[in-house]
Amino acid sequence: MKYIYCHPLFDERKCAHRFSYRLKTALEEKGLVLQRFDYCGTGEAPGEFADVSLQSLRADIVRQTEGDQVCLIGLRLGASLALDYCVRGAGPAKTVVLIEPVVNGKTYVQYLRRKQRIKNLMTRSSGREFQDDGYENIEGYKTSAKFISQLENINLLEPAGAYSHANSVFIAGISNRQKVDPGLAALAKSLQGKARHVSVENFVLPIFWERIGPADCTELTTAIARWCCG
Amino acid sequence: MDKVGYFRSAANQLSYSTELPVQHARRTGIIFVHAADGNRLGPHRMFVELARRFALLGYPALRFDLSGCGDSTGEVSQQGIDAEVFDVAGAVEFFTANAPLDGVVLFGISRGARVCYTAMARYRLPLKGLILLSTPVSSGKAGLKSFAGELKQYIYKLKEPSHLWKLLRGRANIARIWTTLVTAGRLADRYETQEKTVPASKAPVLFIYAGHDSIAEESSRYYAAKCRDNALPYDCRFIAEANHSFFHYKWTEQIFDLSEEWLERISEQVVKL
Q1: Which residue from A225, A22, A208 is spatially nearest to B72, judged by alpha carbons?
Q2: Which pTM value belongs to this model?
Q3: Which of B79, B118, B107, B128 lies closest to B273, judged by CA?
Q4: Residues A44-62 pLDDT 10s
Q5: H/E element holding B48?
Q6: CA B165, CA A190: separation in Å to the nearest integer?
Q7: CA B226, CA A212: separation in Å to the nearest integer?
Q8: Disulfide check for B137: which of A126, A195, B222, B246 has CB 3.0–4.6 Å away?
Q9: Is residue B1 very low, low, confident or very high in pLDDT (cuts 50, 70, 90)?
């Protein structure tokens, strides 16, 4: 069994790196090896971010799994890609752990643009000074319009309707409140009766993928290790 | 990325990646030093892209995670920058011992830049130069400006209806906001005043600041004076439209162009000497 971690993208990739390291350590304590990899054009992988697309991300995950039975653990967009892997039946997955997945792509792109807009305001920039046709600056990444449009079309509730795989899906919501996010609850509901087991759990933690700085995620990493072992 | 591994620094294992030129390797390496709580990717993967481009010019490059960051063991130091300065000295020792190098250029950003400057002042290192981005200085004024900068960012956030709605519904993380503001204000006494003694190592320095960085004006003046006092050759350049972390891919290109031109210049100066 392979345990594969799917990173988020953009600034979330950097902010959440330490979390992925802590998760790897937590799994090692249970005797499990977590494979972390970067999609082409991101992190330390070869390639340019400008060439990243939904197709390239999907192909990168398939390359990692190599058709083996896997447990996929994803954070944010990485979680959405992990579920997408199962929905498309790209390979056998025993367990899927979705940490605060991007359920609605439109909302996600709005959120990315909002963050960029605030950065532009801080530098009194209109955001149009350095425009390249077909590309947008998202948190310092040269992002193709094609990829942004693909991100906007993500809707986990729709493909989840076609989901029919005998695996376990664990959804972890992260917030500063006790209550499960309604979007995640809806995602869990849409998977009921289709996956072998579906559960959603909320963790009261800092939004560690938004901001660098120490965050104690032991409760979350322990829970994930437990799900992977189960 | 040619090689990944670990080297030791005090009790910690520091994770690193190297980019080595395929041919015509120069004997000057470049070591990247990241900012507070960051990692060896640098902001928006800037270090990865720059290391690859420098390797194409023949400069071997090493990126590493400071103690308690990225994939390195240990915890982030809550007290001063001594542990990070020690990590940088260890990285220089490791890289020069394991690659055919005569010396290295330290390339740091923000807190990482300050760490590089202190490493030069404190240790005898085979340094060929320093490229320092957004190097901060500690002073009451810098602390106030940093605090005001963060506050301004929150005010801009409130102009976004979704953020305002979140605040009105009591869902904003007030404790987190307060911590951020206090941390920004603590720039006033975050770093010790640089030693008045002669630096243990001497190398030319290229300072790059962002025009829209609240600390740029005071910091650039401070370090220019320091360099003059210590007879260190220096150059200070501004990227007018940029912010502290250079959050546009075009600014990464400008940083590369400035660095490339400066590296060529200092290597010519060495040959003339």
Answers
A1: A22
A2: 0.91
A3: B128
A4: 999 999 999 999 999 999 9
A5: helix B46-56
A6: 28
A7: 31
A8: B222
A9: low
What is the distance between the alpha carbons of residues B155 and B78, in angstroms, rounded to a whole number?
Answer: 28
Out of A14, A44, A137, whose CB is closest to B248? A137
B37: left (phi over 0), alpha (psi -120 to 50) or beta: left
Q: Which CATH class is domain B3-137+194-272?
A: alpha beta
Q: Note the pLDDT of residue B84.
A: 95
Instruction: Report CA B4 to chain centroid distance, whole Å.
Output: 21
Q: What is the pLDDT of residues B19-33, one digit of tens each?
A: 999 887 899 999 999
Give the residue extent of every domain in chain B.
3-137+194-272, 139-190
Q: How far apart are CA B213 and CA B220, in angstroms?
A: 11
Instruction: Write the single-letter amino acid at A131.
Output: Q
Chain B residues closer than 8 Å to A214 by CB: 37, 75-76
Query: Of B129, B114, B12, which is closest to residue B73 (Cα–Cα)?
Result: B12
Contact B162 A114 (CB under 8 A): yes
Q: Going by C-beta distance under 8 Å and a sequence separation of 6 or more, which residues neighbour residue A208? A: A15, A16, A19, A174, A215, A217
Q: Report how far residue A85's alpha carbon sits from residue A190's, in angstroms, rounded to the nearest whole number.
A: 17
Domains in chain A: ranges and CATH: 2-103+157-229 (3.40.50.1820)
**Neighboring chain B residues of A41 at a CB cutoff of 8 Å:** none
CA-CA-CA-CA torsion for A210, A206, B83, B88, nearest 10 degrees? -20
Rounded-to-integer distance, Cα B130 and Cα B198, Å? 17
* Per-residue model confidence (pLDDT) at position B72: 97
Alpha carbons B161 and B166: distance in angstroms, whole number? 8
pLDDT band at B269 (very low <50, low <70, confident <90, very high): low
By Cβ distance, the residue of A122, A125, A139 closest to B156 is A122
